[in-house]
Design brief:
This protein has 236 residues and is an alpha/beta fold. The protein has one domain: 3-Layer(aba) Sandwich (Rossmann fold). 38% of the residues lie in helices and 23% in strands. It is built from eight helices and nine strands. Helix 1 (13-26) packs parallel to helix 2 (48-56), helix 1 packs across helix 8 and helix 4 (87-98) crosses helix 5.
Length: 236
């Protein structure tokens, strides 16, 4: 199992989940994806899970709570007069998915401390599930601070950090990006385990699934996969 969080919004978290799912499937794993709280999407509209399955292929998914306004889930629920997400719902849903999958990916909303409910964050979810956390980060200026803060918060809560993912790596990175790619592993004390190219979400699904294994290194899988956790993802 892996929990996938971001250092902020719009860092490529959903495309990363699709890439992880496609790469794991190519590695022979049965994959399922859970999105505990989806915001900014009306009933009946496609959410993040639809993006994941459109790119990675059909796989078991579960969305627990949905709120129409594009806000933090706690705020969106309160404004809509809808029930807050509950931790027991998340744990029960993930446990159900685990019965039919070798790897369950749990996608958060925004960063690790964004409120899913008044007394619930993705940090609480990761602790309750006893799941390693993949941190998706932006390559540009500001990412060192955001990434270190996220990793420090996880470790302070005794959560395992499975690695960093650069969620949108451009074809022509600037100086800050290339320096950040060198500095992130050193400062955060964890490997970059995947580099997803910018525009990956616009690829044809067949092309996406064929390319995803080249973006993702094996250490982000659970230990049961037999991964070599000493490997560092090489950035193009």
């Amino acid at each position: 199992m892996l929990v996938v969080t971001g250092t902020s919004t719009d860092v490529g978290k959903t495309i990363t989940v699709a890439a992880l799912a496609a790469a794991a499937a190519a590695d022979g794993l049965r994959v399922a994806v859970c999105k505990p709280a989806q915001t900014g999407v009306a009933p009946g509209e496609d959410g993040d899970l639809a993006v994941v399955t459109a790119l990675a292929g059909e796989l078991p998914t579960a969305e627990i709570a949905r709120y129409p306004e594009p806000l933090a889930p706690e705020t969106a629920a309160r404004r809509a007069g809808l029930p807050y997400l509950r931790l027991d719902e998340v744990c029960e849903t993930v446990e159900h998915l685990r019965r039919e999958a070798d790897l369950v990916l749990v996608e958060g909303a925004g960063g690790i401390l964004v409120r899913l409910a008044p007394d619930l964050t993705l940090l609480d979810v990761a602790r309750a599930l006893d799941a390693p956390v993949v941190v998706v980060t932006d390559p540009g200026l500001g990412t060192l601070n955001h990434s270190e803060l996220t990793v420090d918060a996880l470790r302070a809560a005794d959560c395992e950090v499975a690695g960093l993912v650069i969620g949108s790596w451009p074809a022509a990175p600037d100086l800050a990006m290339t320096c950040n790619a060198d500095d992130l592993p050193r400062l955060c004390g964890t490997d970059i385990v995947a580099v997803v190219p910018s525009g990956a979400g616009r690829l044809d699904p067949d092309d996406f699934q064929a390319a995803a294994p080249s973006w993702v290194s094996r250490p982000c899988w659970s230990p049961a996969s037999g991964a070599d956790t000493s490997h560092q993802k090489e950035i193009p």
